[in-house]
Write a structure and sequence with these properties.
- The chain has about 300 residues and is α+β, with helices and mostly antiparallel strands.
- The protein has three domains: about 80 residues, Winged helix-like DNA-binding domain superfamily/Winged helix DNA-binding domain (Arc Repressor Mutant, subunit A), CATH 1.10.10.10; about 100 residues, D-Maltodextrin-Binding Protein, domain 2 (3-Layer(aba) Sandwich), CATH 3.40.190.10; about 110 residues, 3-Layer(aba) Sandwich (D-Maltodextrin-Binding Protein, domain 2).
- The strands form five sheets. The chain has a five-stranded mixed sheet, covered by helices on one side. Strands 7, 12, 13 and 14 form a four-stranded antiparallel sheet that branches.
- A hairpin with a 2-residue loop joins β9 and β10.
- It is elongated and about 70 Å long.
- The termini are far apart.
């Protein structure tokens, strides 16, 4: 069935909002509409397309196969259109709109807490929405303007801006642990130590410890009875002497300053990393994002 251009976009904003939230009620709140009008717009779209886009039960909304296929086709285009309209609206005026950030929890005290109060004073027209998460794989589809994460976790096609001085990956333990079990001098010594293993929440795999020895990369599957998927818990257990951990001088900065953890095998560190603000090439000219980056450079001086 052919449809004219004016009609072809009918129902798409409602479809995208429900697909993002998987809830008609939440989508209606996002659109500042009634749930009934959102449902009617969806029904008209489904009728026009001749196929259901959502499975609906009293407790749950989920995409059908046709709905998923439509989302994959029109989702990126809708984000590009929204970004284009916002760029056009902002180009002739001061930065405004909503800056949506997805931020690694670790970055809160180092970036968000020092920068955000000044940013709000400098740019009162910009709203800021911050999602705290270590899972950034849906960065584009969920409509974020920028993310803050560890450099080695950022996708290759993103533009990244350094937010802190370089830091090193190493092995860390408590003074009491080292007193009782000694310090590993080379990576081979780790097989004789109790290691706390880290299961990455975003991938589900146990993180392998990476080192540089004699000019080549060495990856070790740590041996230990305890496995966790939370970095804060991992560091806390290491402080209590439960075992050794693989971390960075940035992640453990508080413990290093307090003397509750000490590094070993620093000379085998696989290189320097850091905390970065990252964004897509399409977002780089947004005035609201440029304003945030400029302030980060001024206040954080990496």
């Amino acid at each position: 069935m052919s449809m004219n251009h004016a009609q072809s976009f009918d129902g798409l904003p409602e479809f995208l909002a429900v697909a993002r939230r998987l809830s008609v009620t939440k989508a209606a709140l996002d659109l500042d509409r009634s749930a009934g009008s959102v449902s009617q717009a969806l029904q008209r779209l489904e009728l026009r397309l001749g196929t259901p886009l959502f499975h609906r039960t009293t407790r749950k909304v989920s995409l059908t196969e046709a709905g998923q296929a439509l989302l994959e086709k029109v989702g990126p285009a809708a984000l590009a259109i929204a970004a284009g309209l916002e760029d056009a609206a902002q180009s002739a005026q001061a930065p405004s709109g909503t800056l949506r950030l997805i931020v690694e929890r670790l970055a809160l005290p180092h970036v968000i807490e020092p920068v955000l109060p000044t940013f709000r004073l400098a740019w009162p027209n910009i709203n800021v929405e911050i999602t705290v998460s270590n899972r950034h794989e849906n960065f584009v589809s969920e409509g974020y303007d920028a993310g803050i994460s560890i450099g080695s976790y950022i996708a290759q096609d993103m533009i990244a801006v350094r937010l802190c001085k370089p830091y090193q990956w190493a092995v860390f333990g408590s003074p009491a642990y080292f007193k009782a079990h000694g310090r590993p001098q080379v990576t081979g010594d780790l097989t004789r130590h109790e290691c706390i293993r880290f299961r990455r929440p975003e991938k589900g795999d146990v993180y392998r410890w990476e080192f540089m020895e004699n000019g080549s990369t060495v990856r070790i599957d740590p041996l230990g009875a305890v496995t966790v998927n939370d970095g804060e818990l991992m560091r806390s257990l290491a402080v209590k002497g439960v075992g050794l951990i693989y971390s960075s001088t940035f992640h453990t900065s508080r413990e290093l300053a307090a003397g509750t953890l000490e590094p070993v095998l620093l000379d085998c560190s696989p290189g320097s990393d850091g905390l970065f603000l990252y964004f897509s090439k399409a977002a780089r000219n947004q005035p609201k994002l440029r304003a945030f980056i400029d302030l980060c450079h001024r206040l954080l001086a990496p």
